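Need fresh eyes. Consider my entry:
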Amino acid sequence: DPASHLLAEVLTCQPDTPSLDLSITLDEEQLFWFDFPGSHWTPQLPHLPPWPAGLETPPDILQEVQLCQELRKSLSQALSGFLPESRGIPVVSIFPVLPPFLGEPNTLVCLVENIFPPALDITWTLSGVPVTRGVTHSPYTPTSDLTFRRYSQIPIVPAVGDVHACVVTTQGDNATVVAYWVPPDTALDEGLDTALAGAAMALGIVLALLGVTLAMVARR
């Protein structure tokens, strides 16, 4: 059977920031997102062709936005006090793009999953000091379980003693989740490798002597 794929278009309107979000995904990978301030489609990947000019134009999207906002207001008024507000607990992971080595430029990625609603702030600190230079954020990407994910990146040059932190704060309740990353100590790694190599060599010598002894006993 041919493999099945999921093409999804998700429009979000909410009282939080961003108030509007529109994404098109294929198998949960974002293809395009609509830049509402600039009123144009933006490809998420550089090699994608531009959005067709006659397909779902900004006036068409404006009509969908107006319908979404009207539904949100009417449903909020009708269901207020009857249904609890749904909120997800963000799951945060942090990792380098390349294998980390002290003194070599790299990039840290902070991946935030299980986002709902899509309204949170991602900030970075280095040893407790806020860092903003070079920080980039991706748009929110909807997933098949009706949550969102988002990631942030920051350029780094790993050094001994650095403690990088990705701080995720949800809007509304100001709940905070923090993930940390510390550069590996290459000196300890080299020492461990040397110790393991020495232990392996010693074990090899012992096994060789044991083999010789057993061979002599068997001959006798």
